[in-house]
Specification:
Length: 181
């Protein structure tokens, strides 16, 4: 929660806020996350406008992940920007019923008194910035499909021979000697 009392409701007033906060619950995708309790830095710019408070900010922190090819753990810096409008409660546009704006009302954020809750906005910005398929390096060869060995460590001569299902072995003989059969 960020207090906007010092900002006032005078359009044009501006205030900057810098905070370091702990993540209350993990921000995560299938393969990457900002774990619960991790510290993130918020650089915020609060601007009073006619409709409410415009918040422009940057979130900095670190996310942890597993390489999607070789499953090695990795940790990378994360920096993501966001901008959101927090409307004053009880404004004129709430009184318009049946309008197209009333259908979008659920998507709007409102100040709670003089406080604004940045939790959902920060969570959405961070989760959308997390990589869906993180890689330890752009040239990561991954794992061997046969034995699961890391191909980067196994080397270029890693192979498993010519494995053929024994049920197809009779066909191999025909293929090698197509003669008069």
């Amino acid at each position: 929660m960020v207090d906007t009392r010092q900002l006032g409701r005078q359009p044009g007033s501006m205030r900057t806020v810098n905070r370091i906060v702990a993540v209350p619950e993990a921000f995560a995708t299938a393969m990457a996350s900002v774990p619960t309790g991790s510290e993130i830095e918020l650089d915020l710019r609060l601007e009073a406008v006619m409709e409410g408070v415009l918040v422009t900010g940057t979130v900095r922190g670190q996310h942890t992940a597993e390489c999607s090819r070789c499953l090695d753990p990795l940790s990378e810096d994360l920096e993501v920007g966001f901008q959101e409008m927090y409307r004053y409660p009880g404004g004129d546009d709430e009184a318009v019923a049946g309008d197209q704006d009333s259908a979008d009302e659920d998507e709007d954020y409102y100040l709670e008194g003089d406080l604004l809750d940045l939790g959902p906005v920060v969570r959405d910005a961070v989760v959308l910035a997390l990589p869906l398929s993180p890689l330890c390096g752009p040239d990561c060869p991954g794992l061997c499909a046969e034995c699961g060995a890391k191909l980067a460590e196994a080397g270029p001569d890693h192979q498993h021979g010519d494995r053929v299902d024994p049920r197809w072995e009779a066909l191999r003989g025909i293929a090698e000697d197509p003669g008069e059969r």
